[in-house]
């Protein structure tokens, strides 16, 4: 607004379109006007021109008094310029609530500087009063008030972090500010604890950085394989007590723990031993190994140490997904499938390999012993296709006339019997055989034609049977 100070120091508001008279001072202030310390005041000269008035010295003097706790608007000299509504502080320039620091005192202002620029003493005092009122009002209006609580930069926070963190690792940072300019500190008011009640997370009171406590580093909050993997906190921002009552604000923070590839596959057993019968087919499962990965990665199987035939062909194979071990086509036709062909013990090394889902690929190995078992797949076999023995007449019952021999490739014991014998007139058998395959005359045979050359016949045909025991089956 524009205010006019006449030659007697009386004030009036400059009406729209009104031209001030010669000798009057026009002051611009209020809404749309310059700042209090950059007030615009002009003196109207006799020829109607305007002359800018220098107020620097007066403004400096007013600020000096304010710093001393003096209210410069209460100077006695200003009374000469006061005149009710048209006095030195007209209605509309603003009301000021006095404080204890604004003490009413008598202060002399030197107005010679303004008077030397063409103003009367009353105009000078009125102008200084206006400037003082505006400056004091500005000082009062800018006094800070604690009318704002801290405010977080987000309505909520969600952070993800890898497992296996150290205490010094920052998992996430929250931030809050106070519109009143007060300092803000942070604390966790709802935490996650271990079984012993120890807090697993902490926050830097100044920076808002969230990290694990020592207890948290060694707890489920730092090991993805231990549930749970999502941890919910409540963080409180607290302003300091600089401007009065202390106000706070809360925010929810969700921390999601991520899985790392920190576990190699692990077999369900330290080693495996399987037995299988000989004469298997390629589709027969000889044994199954199993491994799992604590990080949840898929595992595949391979045989990294195999058994080979003379041509270097692998005799065993494994299903990469199921871990089932079987014979290869080369193995079906090799010693690994025929007990009668050594060796019968076959040692493999199986490797379990995790996939690359979480980063580096890790493996584990296990020893697998395969023992080939014998089946009764061989009949006894005589050492000769037939036997022919000669013996002198007049033998005793203990004399061995000849010996047959049979063996079983399956290793079973063999016993002998005469299944077609020679008999006397009474039907008595004339020959017998013992467990060793020794053939001799029976008591009847010693007395019969079979022991007297002069009595025919002299050639005697027997049929001897070798029988394996029942150890392996039929």
From TrEMBL:
GO biological-process terms attached to the record: homophilic cell adhesion via plasma membrane adhesion molecules
UniProt domain Cadherin: residue ranges: 153-267, 268-382, 383-468
UniProt keywords, alphabetically: Calcium, Cell adhesion, Membrane, Repeat, Transmembrane, Transmembrane helix
Gene Ontology CC entries for this record: cell-cell junction; membrane
Molecular function (Gene Ontology), one example: calcium ion binding
Main location: membrane
InterPro entries: Cadherin-domain_protein, Cadherin-like_dom, Cadherin-like_sf
SUPFAM superfamilies in UniProt: Cadherin-like
UniProt-recorded name of the protein: Cadherin repeat domain-containing protein
Superkingdom, natural source: Bacteria
Localization terms from the record: Membrane
């Amino acid at each position: 607004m524009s205010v006019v100070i006449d030659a007697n120091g009386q004030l009036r508001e400059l009406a729209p379109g009104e031209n001030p008279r010669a000798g009057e001072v026009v002051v611009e202030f209020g809404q749309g006007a310059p700042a209090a310390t950059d007030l615009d005041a002009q003196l109207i000269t006799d020829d109607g021109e305007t002359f800018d008035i220098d107020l620097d010295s007066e403004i400096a003097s007013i600020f000096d008094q304010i710093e001393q706790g003096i209210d410069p608007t209460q100077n006695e000299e200003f009374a000469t310029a006061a005149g009710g509504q048209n006095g030195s502080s007209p209605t509309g320039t603003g009301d000021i609530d006095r404080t204890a620091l604004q003490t009413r005192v008598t202060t002399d202002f030197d107005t010679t500087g303004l008077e030397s620029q063409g103003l009367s003493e009353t105009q000078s005092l009125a102008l200084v009063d206006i400037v003082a009122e505006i400056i004091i009002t500005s000082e009062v209006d800018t006094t800070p008030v604690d009318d704002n609580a801290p405010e977080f930069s987000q309505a909520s926070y969600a952070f993800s972090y890898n497992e296996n963190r150290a205490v010094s690792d920052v998992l996430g940072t929250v931030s809050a500010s106070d519109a009143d300019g007060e300092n803000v500190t942070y604390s966790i008011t709802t935490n996650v604890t271990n079984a012993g009640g120890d807090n697993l997370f902490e926050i830097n009171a100044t920076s808002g950085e969230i990290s694990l406590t020592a207890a948290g580093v060694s707890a489920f909050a730092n090991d993805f394989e231990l549930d749970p993997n999502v941890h919910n906190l409540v963080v409180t921002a607290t302003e300091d007590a600089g401007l009065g009552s202390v106000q706070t604000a809360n925010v929810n923070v969700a921390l999601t723990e991520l899985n790392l590839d920190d576990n190699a596959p692990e077999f369900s057993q330290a080693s495996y031993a399987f037995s299988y019968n000989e004469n298997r087919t390629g589709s027969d499962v000889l044994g199954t190994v199993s491994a799992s990965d604590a990080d949840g990665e898929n595992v595949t199987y391979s045989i990294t140490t195999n058994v080979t035939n003379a041509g270097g062909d692998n005799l065993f194979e494994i299903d990469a997904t199921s871990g089932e071990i079987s014979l290869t086509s080369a193995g079906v036709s090799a010693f690994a499938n025929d007990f009668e062909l050594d060796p019968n013990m076959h040692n493999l090394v199986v490797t379990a390999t995790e996939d690359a889902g979480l980063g580096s690929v890790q493996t584990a190995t296990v020893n697998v012993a395969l023992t080939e078992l014998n089946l009764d797949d061989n009949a006894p076999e005589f050492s000769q296709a037939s036997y022919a023995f000669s013996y002198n007449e007049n033998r005793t019952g203990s004399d061995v006339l000849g010996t047959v021999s049979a063996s079983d490739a399956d290793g079973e014991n063999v016993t002998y019997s005469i299944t077609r014998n020679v008999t006397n007139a009474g039907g008595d058998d004339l020959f017998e055989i013992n467990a060793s395959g020794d053939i001799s005359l029976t008591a009847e045979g010693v007395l019969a034609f079979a022991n007297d050359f002069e009595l025919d016949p002299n050639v005697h045909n027997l049929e001897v049977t070798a029988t394996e025991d029942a150890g392996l089956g039929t």
